[in-house]
């Protein structure tokens, strides 16, 4: 059972093992990754839209998402604050640097939600029950993970250097451990076995992964809960990073989770300065590897 649950991880490590030097090919891979993300999210929405009793379950799903978001927010910020107290970090913020358009970034953060909503509306109102949707989503996810592995390997990132970044490693571990503690605290609220609650808490902001992996294992409703929890983490991170990174950089970088090495990185860079960039990349990179591993392990225990 464990082997089957972790099989989805193989493409990630396979991609990371391949070195490419063709910049044009890497550009094609970049746009393919973006297209696959929205395709997978649309399939997630399609599954939600065609779920039996969807309207009756929306209230329950909203309560589950709210519990996940709030408990993870408090636990993560507390754990990252404690790490900051133990290992203080200076941002080295640069005066006069250009700030990103937070309105543009916020709107970009809503795009994943729109993809899921579009898929859900199509599934609910337009499309009949389609065979093999889950299989297509799983294969699309495996292809996505392969391409992401290629991107990680060919982004000039040395695994040894990333693992030796003490701040990035510490932030990632504080984030992961506090999330698992939150998962244990959420067991009565979510009313699921402990291993499922821990799996739900292990997305670390990677919504295109958690929504499909959780959905395949626990059903479309839980897949939607996992997706919403992780996409809301990204949106909240965009709001709080500029506010706290000056005084508590570990909290700002860590709460972004896996997105600290990509989507929230421009905000971290502009708000915290260049000194935050290698730490954010290391933390996001490590959480990107930990998330599928932990979800696979916990779901295999069921």
Automatic annotation (TrEMBL):
Transmembrane segments: 6-21, 28-49, 61-84, 105-127, 139-156, 168-187, 207-228, 235-257, 277-301
Top-rank taxon: Bacteria
One term under GO cellular component: plasma membrane
InterPro entries in the cross-refs: LysO
Keywords: Membrane, Transmembrane, Transmembrane helix
Molecular-function annotations in GO: L-lysine efflux transmembrane transporter activity
Protein name: Lysine exporter LysO family protein
Upper classification of the organism: Bacteria, Pseudomonadati, Pseudomonadota, Gammaproteobacteria, Pseudomonadales
